[in-house]
Amino acid sequence: MNFFLKKPYGLFAILFFMVTIFVWYAVLHEDRGGVMTVAFLDVGQGDAIFIEAPNGNQIIVDGGPDRSILRELSTVMSFYDHSIDMLVVTNPDTDHYAGFIDVLKNYKVEHVLESGTRSSSTTYKEFEKDVALEGATKTIARKNMKIILDKDVYLDILFPDQDVSDFTTNDGSIIARLVYKNVSYLLTGDTTQKMERHVLAVATTSLKSTVLKVAHHGSRTSSGEAFVQTVSPKLAVISAGKNNRYGHPHKETLETFLKVQIPVVGTYERGTIVTKTDGENISIE
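^ thats the sequence. predicted structure below, dont judge the formating
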């Protein structure tokens, strides 16, 4: 099953003629030069990944724990852009979706992709209500779905490959691989070593990726050595809050990456981490 995303530029309310002309000039002359942006946003103890394809299609994978995502989006999105093509909730833990409640209030959202694991929290019920009010199309992720963002750019769903409604939220996390030509990002939510082994066992495509978003904020419950070696990234990114109460990233996880000689960068040290790629090379800002 494939999703083809297309971001239309809607008409803005005409308040002042000259302002309108300026805004349209900026929109029509924006040139990404074939470059895709993937930004790991500093939302404290949580996950939020902003993806913008060369044609302007946008996905946000996870929304962080609160409205701090709005602050970070303002640094990577154009001021006149008030729409997002898809929100992906890798699992219904608060630190992965609560910020989307504010995103839905401030941006037009077309699609929402969820893992299918359950949450009975009042916050998640509020999120689901807001999705319905938005009129966004809601879909449960399944293996072999491809979200097509642009020519040569797609998000390939690797897991879930089954009904995960009775799984723990971490075991049921969405695992997806973002591909642009010869550059790829493996996005792992809060998945566990148990599910890493499952994905390794049933993989029908390569897991090897240029960048690995380390699962569960660098917790010792994830990033098993066999999984990391199979992915064999050139860079690992950890999203975690500075001096967080969980002690993320855990020493054991950092030692695994050190052992296999993979450099690690984290939002807890650098803040928002912006990567850009033309599909062949990748840079970090």
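Helices lie at 17-29, 68-76, 94-106, 122-134, 193-202, 225-231, 251-259, 267-270.
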